[in-house]
Amino acid sequence: MKTSDALSDLEGYAGGRSRLSALELPETLELLCRWYADERADDALAITDDGDGLLVEWGTFAFDGTPWQFSVTRQFTIWEDDSDEDVELWQLAITFIFASTSTNETLTDSRWCFDPDDVVAFADSVRTGPAWTAATGDRALASEIDYEQV
Predict the structure, then answer these.
(1) Which residue spans within 36-108 are E strands per DSSP?
(2) How far apart, in whole angstroms, are the C-alpha atoms of residue 91 and residue 65?
């Protein structure tokens, strides 16, 4: 897969855009972990160079009343040429937005996985934390799918 086709590739992997958009958080984590284990980005840096990884993060990331979020993200690092200055980072993120509560407002953290062989242990580590319990014990207000350069 080319990184420029990552969103359409994930949509196909999920069985279509509408299917992808309808997934709840547990199914989204499972899907992105399977996709990461099965599909490599041809134009990203090698996995050994952290060129293709999974990020799961949660928290309230602004001080403006932003609701609590839990996202599952695939990040690609791409060299535009041979110089260190032309690195691009692209993230395909599925973010679930929740009403802030006194419990989830205290939960802010992230987990990374840069090895497809570690994806099962990675997913297990996400599912055993208090943020997972908070997110899966509540109904998301909304979800968003974004693919952008960061």
Answers:
(1) 52-59, 68-79, 87-98
(2) 24
- Rg of the chain over Cα atoms, rounded to whole angstroms, equals 15
Distance between CA 122 and CA 10 in Å, rounded? Answer: 20
**pLDDT per residue as tens, the chain (150 positions):** 999 999 999 999 999 999 999 999 999 999 999 999 999 999 999 988 999 999 999 998 776 667 999 999 999 999 876 655 678 999 999 999 999 998 998 999 999 999 999 999 999 999 999 999 999 999 999 999 999 999
The position carrying tokens 């299917």 is 19
Question: How many residues make up the chain in this entry?
Answer: 150
Task: Provide the Cα torsion 107, 58, 110, 43; round to 10°.
Answer: 180
Contact yes or no for 100/68 (Cβ under 8 A)? yes
The Cα 23–Cα 46 span in angstroms is: 29
Q: Are 111 and 56 in contact (CB under 8 A)?
A: yes
